[in-house]
Amino acid sequence: MEKAEDIRHTLGNKQIYDLRKETIERIFGTAKEQHGFRYTQYIGRARMEMKAGLTFACMNLKKLARILDKREERISTIHNIERLLKEKTFFKKSGAGEVV
Questions:
Q1: Cα angle vertex 19, ends 16, 25, to 5°?
Q2: Under 8 Å CB-to-CB from 84, ≥6 apart: which residues?
Q3: CA 8 to CA 17: how far, in whole Å?
Q4: 55 CB-contact burial (10 Å; exposed 0-12 / middle 13-18 / buried 19+)
Q5: How much is the CA Rg of the chain, to the nearest whole Å?
Q6: Alpha-carbon span 19 to 5, nearest angstrom
Q7: For residue 31, how many C-alpha atoms fall within 13 Å in the half-sphere facing its CB?
Q8: Nearest to 48 by CA among 39, 56, 40
Q9: How far apart are CA 29 and CA 50, in angstroms?
Q10: 3-state SS, one letter per residue, for the chain
């Protein structure tokens, strides 16, 4: 255990460990605040494991929905740019046929 602590405090690993607060521990904070994980609501380990599994599966589905929504926004933006480039609506033609 002491070796693990020593490794964690080295320069490169310290930066990685600091990111843990922003990613992993945030998930457990969300579970505690929004999904009732501050206190157990069921008696027995099997029931709590079932609740935890379903809760974290739902949290992963919500995260997936947000990721896909952002990806869809990016794709639609790219398609709009491609459509504008194909239509060339942002160029004006002068009377002599040259582009201004």
A1: 125
A2: 90
A3: 7
A4: middle
A5: 26
A6: 16
A7: 18
A8: 40
A9: 19
A10: CHHHHHHHCCHHHHHHHHHHHHHHHHHHHHHHHHCCCCCCCCCCHHHHHHHHHHHHHHHHHHHHHHHHHHHHHHHHHHHHHHHHHHHCCCCCECCCCCEC
Question: pLDDT by residue (tens digit) across 60-93?
Answer: 999 899 999 988 888 888 888 888 777 765 555 5
> What percent of the chain shows pLDDT beyond 90?
14
pLDDT for the residue 92: 57
Question: 13-34: buried (b, 16+ CB within 10 Å) or exposed (e) per residue?
Answer: eeeeeeeeeeeeeeeeeebeee
- Angle at which helix 11-34 crosses helix 45-87, to 10 degrees, equals 110
